[in-house]
């Protein structure tokens, strides 16, 4: 749009939550919409209209037609908010329809032109309030909401030295020397609570002030022309991205917590109102080639990226989505590609992509076409777009097939018909079908045709540990509990409440919540009990009971299994413990249900990726002679290594193939106030000498983080850096009062 419009519709919205610069950030519903028509040519104003959206909470299920909207026209007597006309709607859908109908009638009655455009004070009212709520409720908004003027940016054309982020209607009015009724006009820059809802009269006052600013800009000496409005993307455009393309770091975000079945269109719907760059929604895949619930999204500008960050923990269905900053390099790793074949395949626009997985290695283009051909007597058609040109087989660099392929379909109807063939047979193999995206095509091709997208681990830690089985003997003392399936909001207090009478049997500092790589709860917890008998009784009585969290409304049933300290140590170091092992004491070593930690399994490092051998920590002869402690002692109390010795070569970077778990700082009933402690230290204190500390360390905090949660032998009064590690610790007590014993 290059010519100046005939009418400007000044709009102001208010929600039931935050206002000002936080408007729309708390996902609250729209409750008030105020607008006023401005004739640009004649510089005249229309009536101030107010729309109140008040949900009908009655239980009546009768259809409502005329009662959906109640009109209260106040011409002689102004309403309490000061508006000329007040409308009340019971839903956003009926409210938007009322706004569009009344606005059209007012423009037609004026008779001085038909072109109009909305005008708002900033981006939030349109992009962060109207569009997100309408998209979440599957409501189609009128075309007028897809373009609008940002009054602040129009003001900046004449006052370029102003700070855009600090601008508001109050500041603009003062700069134009307009009279402002300070006691009544709301100033967003004032020290007001941004989370509090606005009074009803504020929206009307803001609209009147904005119309005064517009009339001042239209008049001498500014003679401003409203000709280039902001645009809101109506639909997401898929496309390709080259690895050589430059992507600005300030335009990319990472969304985490997406439903597994979500597509790039679902992501675009979540960020409705913000303009995503072409092909800017890339779903991430894990090491197995499956979606991991994360996506990288590229926006057209930094301004839209900043607005997207305000949607942190907004909901997509029943799941809340976390939004964080990311870099352009992160986006190119996921969505970037270099293959000309892929670029040609994805160059066809308005195509739906379906991924085929599990194809026979000898499958051809004709086999795929026959697979999607309609059966005899069937009216459903799912013709492949472009015949053979619409099929892309995924191959290894040497040309061998991987069993994956991507197929193009011309429309959504054909794609849905094709997806109904999920797990049908092609030859002797069943084929899995999934709706895919352009970014997923790039990721899969990058994974198979070049270096791995997720680097693999170098030489495993097994090579530097004694030659001993990683699986603990199943016959150890099972005086610990493993809780699985905890609510992610559960705290140690919730766990102790769940244990009930068994809380008295928890050892001092014996509660260990398991965290993942991001430091978030993994849903697992280990508890050290005073005896194996009480641990068995607790597991039998509490297994699959429901645990509630004080910090969240969700509640889940929790699985409770007895386990040994060695098994606990193995899981905390990154291994996995199957619940089948918890109830089986006579099972062979191969069937214990335990698996080595992922970073310690030699099979996870393909032979094509070789690393320099590392000298073992203990000689083989010393290991065979039994001069090393049991596995549980090694994992829970790591031996200090010789200064300068590294687990991995300096040139190799350590990666974990799968999730790695870490223990949280331990807790117990006495430290949390469940039961009073008898003394400040429940066991005799000990000293640890740590030579070779860096001079630039941050002091006590680093030392506490280094030893927090580790066990020690209470009979030792002094542990030297190169002293022997005792193999037996009957008490398994933990270090307490850390700030009491750190001495630098």
UniProtKB/TrEMBL annotation:
Disordered: annotated segments: 581-606
GO molecular function, one term: RNA binding
Gene3D superfamilies xrefs: 3.30.70.330, Ribonuclease H-like superfamily/Ribonuclease H
InterPro entries on file: ESRP (IPR050666), Nucleotide-bd_a/b_plait_sf (IPR012677), RBD_domain_sf (IPR035979), RNaseH_sf (IPR036397), RRM_dom (IPR000504)
Keyword annotations: mRNA processing, mRNA splicing, Nucleus, Repeat, RNA-binding
Subcellular location: Nucleus
Xref: SMART domains: RRM
Biological process annotations from GO: mRNA processing; RNA splicing
Family: Belongs to the ESRP family.
Protein name: Epithelial splicing regulatory protein 1
Gene source species: Fundulus heteroclitus
């Amino acid at each position: 749009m290059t010519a100046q419009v005939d009418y400007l519709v000044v709009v102001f919205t208010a929600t039931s939550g935050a206002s000002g610069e936080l408007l729309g950030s708390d996902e609250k519903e729209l409750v008030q919409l105020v607008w006023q028509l401005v004739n640009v040519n004649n510089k005249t104003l229309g009536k101030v209209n107010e729309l109140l959206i008040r949900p009908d909470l009655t239980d009546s299920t009768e259809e409502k037609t005329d009662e959906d909207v109640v009109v209260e026209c106040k011409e002689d007597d102004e309403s309490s908010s000061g508006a000329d006309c007040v409308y009340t709607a019971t839903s956003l859908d009926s409210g938007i329809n009322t706004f569009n109908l009344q606005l059209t009638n007012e423009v037609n009655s004026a008779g001085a032109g038909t072109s109009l455009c909305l005008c708002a004070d900033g981006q939030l009212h349109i992009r962060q309030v109207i569009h997100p709520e309408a998209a979440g409720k599957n409501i189609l908004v009128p075309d007028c909401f897809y373009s609008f003027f940002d009054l602040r940016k129009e003001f900046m054309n004449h006052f370029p030295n102003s700070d855009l982020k600090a601008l508001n209607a109050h500041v603009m009015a003062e700069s134009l020397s307009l009279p402002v009724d300070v006691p009544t006009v709301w100033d967003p820059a004032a020290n007001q609570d941004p989370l509090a809802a606005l009074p009803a009269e504020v929206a009307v006052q803001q609209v009147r002030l904005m119309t005064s600013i517009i009339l001042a800009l239209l008049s001498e000496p500014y003679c401003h022309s409203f000709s280039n409005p902001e645009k809101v993307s109506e639909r997401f455009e898929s496309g390709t991205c080259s690895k050589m393309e430059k992507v600005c770091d300030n335009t990319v975000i990472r969304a985490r917590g997406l439903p597994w079945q979500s597509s790039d269109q679902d992501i675009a719907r979540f960020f409705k109102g913000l303009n995503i760059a072409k092909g800017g929604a890339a779903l991430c895949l894990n090491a197995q080639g499956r979606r991991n619930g994360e996506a990288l999204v590229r926006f057209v500008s930094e301004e839209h990226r900043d607005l997207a960050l305000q949607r942190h923990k907004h909901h997509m269905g029943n799941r809340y989505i976390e939004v964080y900053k990311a870099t352009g390099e992160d986006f190119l790793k996921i969505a970037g590609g270099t293959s000309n074949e892929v670029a040609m395949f994805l160059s066809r626009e308005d195509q739906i992509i379906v991924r085929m997985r599990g194809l026979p290695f000898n499958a051809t283009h004709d086999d795929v076409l026959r697979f999607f051909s309609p059966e005899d007597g069937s009216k459903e058609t799912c013709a492949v777009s472009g015949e053979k040109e619409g099929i892309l087989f995924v191959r290894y660099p040497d040309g061998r097939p991987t069993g994956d392929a991507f197929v193009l379909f011309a429309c959504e109807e054909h794609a849905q018909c094709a997806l109904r063939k999920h797990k049908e047979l092609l030859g002797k193999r069943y084929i899995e079908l999934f709706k895919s995206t352009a970014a997923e095509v790039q990721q899969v091709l990058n994974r198979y045709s070049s270096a791995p997208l997720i680097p693999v681990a170098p030489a495993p830690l097994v090579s530097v540990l004694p030659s001993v089985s990683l699986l603990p003997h199943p016959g150890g003392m099972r005086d610990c509990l493993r809780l699985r399936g905890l609510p992610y909001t559960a705290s140690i207090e919730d766990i102790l409440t769940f244990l009930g009478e068994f809380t008295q049997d928890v050892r001092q500092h014996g509660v260990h919540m398991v965290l993942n790589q991001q430091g978030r709860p993994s849903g697992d917890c280990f508890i050290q009990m005073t005896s194996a008998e009480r641990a068995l009784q607790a597991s039998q009585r509490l297994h699959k009971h429901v645990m509630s969290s004080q910090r969240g409304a969700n509640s889940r049933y929790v699985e409770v299994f007895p386990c040994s300290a060695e098994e606990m140590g193995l899981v905390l170091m990154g291994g996995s413990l199957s619940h089948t092992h918890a109830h089986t004491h006579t099972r062979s070593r191969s069937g214990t249900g335990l698996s080595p930690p992922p970073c310690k399994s030699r099979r996870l490092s393909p032979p094509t990726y070789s690393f320099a051998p590392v000298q073992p920590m203990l000689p083989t002869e010393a290991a065979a002679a039994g001069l090393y402690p049991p596995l549980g002692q090694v994992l829970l109390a790591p031996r200090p290594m010789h200064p300068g010795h590294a687990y991995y070569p300096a040139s190799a970077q350590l990666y974990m193939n799968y999730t790695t778990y870490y223990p949280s700082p331990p807790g117990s009933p006495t430290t949390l106030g469940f039961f009073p402690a008898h003394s400040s230290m429940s066991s005799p204190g000990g000293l640890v000498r740590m030579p070779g500390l860096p001079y630039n360390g941050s002091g006590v905090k680093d030392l506490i983080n280094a030893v927090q949660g580790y066990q020690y032998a209470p009979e030792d009064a002094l542990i030297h850096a190169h002293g022997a590690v005792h193999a037996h610790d009957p008490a398994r007590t933990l270090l307490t009062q850390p700030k009491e014993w750190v001495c630098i």
